[in-house]
Write a structure and sequence with these properties.
The complex is a heterodimer of chains A (about 180) and B (about 625). Chain A has about 180 residues and is an all-alpha fold. Chain A has helices spanning about 5-10, 20-35, 45-65, 70-80, 95-110, 115-140, 145-175. Chain A folds into 2 domains: about 5-65, Orthogonal Bundle (Helix Hairpins); about 90-175, Monooxygenase. The longest helix of chain A has 29 residues, at about 145-175. In chain B, α2 (about 125-145) packs across α3, α12 (about 525-555) runs antiparallel to α13 (about 560-580) and α13 (about 560-580) runs antiparallel to α14 (about 580-595). The longest helix of chain B is centred in the C-terminal third of the chain and has 29 residues, at about 525-555. The termini of chain B are far apart. The relative contact order of chain B is 0.10. The chains are: A mainly alpha (about 180), B alpha+beta (about 625). Chains A and B meet through α2, α3, α6 and α7 of A and α8, α10, β19, α12 and α15 of B.
Amino acid sequence: MDFNADHFALFQQPRRFRQDVALLDKRYIDAQAQVHPDRFAHAGEAERRLSLQWATRVNEAYQTLKKPLTRAKYLLMLAGHDLGEENNTAMPADFLMEQMEWREALEEARTAGNHHELEAMHRRIRQRMNDSYEEIAVLLDDKEDHVSAAACVRRLMFLEKLLADIDEAIASLEE
Amino acid sequence: MSLLQIAEPGESAAPHQHKLAVGIDLGTTNSLVATVRSGMSVVISDELGRPLLPSVVHYCADGDKIVGYEAEAQKAVDPRNVIVSAKRFMGRGLKDIAHRESMPYDFEDNPGMVRLRTVAGVKTPVEVSAEILNVLRERAEAALGGTLVGAVITVPAYFDDAQRQATKDAAKLAGINVLRLLNEPTAAAIAYGLDNAAEGVYAVYDLGGGTFDISILRLSRGVFEVLSTGGDSSLGGDDFDQRIFCWIIEAAGLKPLSAGDARLLLTSAREAKEYLTQHAVAPIAARLASGEEVDLKLTTEIFTEISKTLVTKTIQPVRKALRDAGLTVEDVKGVVMVGGATRMPQIQRAVGEFFGQAPLNNLDPDKVVALGAATQANLLAGNLTGDDNWLLLDVIPLSLGLETMGGLVERIIPRNSTIPVARAQEFTTFKDGQTALAVHVIQGERDLVSDCRSLARFELRGIPPMVAGAARIRVTFQVDADGLLSVTAREMTTGVESSITVKPSYGLSDDEVASMLKDSMLHSKDDALRRALKESQVEAQRLIEAVQSALRNDGELLADEQRGKIEAAISRLQVAVLGEDKRQLGVAMNDLEAETREFAAKRMDKSIRTVFAGKNIDELESVAASEKSSGESA
């Protein structure tokens, strides 16, 4: 394990989107079992400091690789591709239109206190996101089409924000 | 009280190798200390065989401090000086404390942590907690026949940084080396999980005297992974007492109460609550100092009705924790109940209904946290070798953020991040020659600073003077395994490290803790100084053993010269341990630490290299298989 390697190399995983998540989990546990601060609670100060750095590094790498969206963003970053996420106008018009419709539906469901509809929306958005991950796998691993993958990732970021807002609406209905 | 057996007859492990470590449950209502003996976690009782220590401290006019049952007996007699439920005041300001009007204390209103004016002077909740911890430490050391190497102290999972730091400060004042601050639900999960060899997703519902926690954990072969945690650090059994208290006042038509009468009725309320666990009706009878009489009957129906909103209040964080974990109730294999307050029938019913299964109560809800903490302490102290060790992966309960322009929050570390975790943020200067920078850190989930909790203000000084906007100051926020935040800063263009002064919003500064420590030395008898020396000697011994063990296992990593220097430093420290000079002891310890720094790095490298080194056939096959398969969904 090399501290300064990228997240994939840290866990000795291939640098690609499709990952064996079960294996990644196992590597993560194996790594933490060696470096976690609990193992060094009775050791000297230097070891405790090193352990803290390593365990933090391992957590950072794992969290990035575990979730498909952060993994995709990371791969693009490693490939030197700038996501240009600030740039709204890079989004296709029909996508933005669809986002507006989703948000109107969210607002309606929220004001109406329609828990059922909000849960249904959550499921639909989740499914959309899962389908996008399939798309990204092909774009990144098979075609190495970073430009299209980046566009897909930007759309996913919108969907992720939408999902978070739906969840917040559900939460506020429960209070 | 008997001296606990150090080793079973016939045990081969040398007894002197076993490090004395304990787990401490510093509870709102009661505290406990437990340890592992002959492979089993046991609670250490007092001389009268009582396992619980009421978390009550009585400050007397003559300067005496009484802790526990004796103090509790005085609470209606001397309400202002008998401090109960101090845990509710740790890391809290005056305005954070609900129902303070019905509390008999003389609160001091100043910014920062609340203080209490007692006949023995102004006390912080940290000092009150330190008195309780001190008694537990003495109890354990007497039972185990030696000075403790360290303790695992539990805290509510939902405690914020200020509350955690206050707990650690209290331990310091009590002369306890904290091996780890452990979240209470996680401690309970350890006790439960190891006991039952459980696997799967479990929820721990922990309702204590003053705090409520819900944690969702995944238990699987030796790994305890917290998926999410939530709760309310101002909600507990005390609040149920409060409801009954208010009902009594209304039902009996009482006039405004004196401090003593308030304390009396709160006690009656608590007793009634506990009585209703096993009975349908609780009689409440009291004669007040004011001459008024109370003669009421509280039924289960009335109690359920008046406490309904409190019960609902516990379910909300449960829903949120499940959502944060991405799970539903169907995914939860079992619900573990922790904390005396979970004995209330309406709680058992509400939890059972919500999860659609009977909650698990097979471990004593009062003891399970201490027992789990003791088990963890045994591991952390280094008493367990090898293969049956478990891994605990816990999380930070609240998001950490920074104040930005316009009173907005920029979240830098999200809640439920696995700890330890760090994030770096870059800042720059806005004036030419600016050499300092102020950073305001808060905890919470809202977008406005005013809706979140102020953690601390960090001042970064020593920034090399430059043109405005030229400096690139990288500030790293690190949350350690105790859930505590530390901040480092470096100016990137020059590599200069900024020095950081911390002004905790609801905590004690390092200076304040140091001066309290000194005070306790001056005003106690010689015992305090002798004890401090003893603690340093134990710490030094621990370090010596750790280094010797390292030399035995990994000595081949060192060149002869390096090894020689380390061994010389060990000898010097061994000599210092035999002496009475605490300062010299400290110097010798620092020397040994310094000499082993490089060795520590080499050992860490060696450890790292073993990770993934032993790839077995199964793993290689699974790698090949995954290369053929077509990815996975979210």
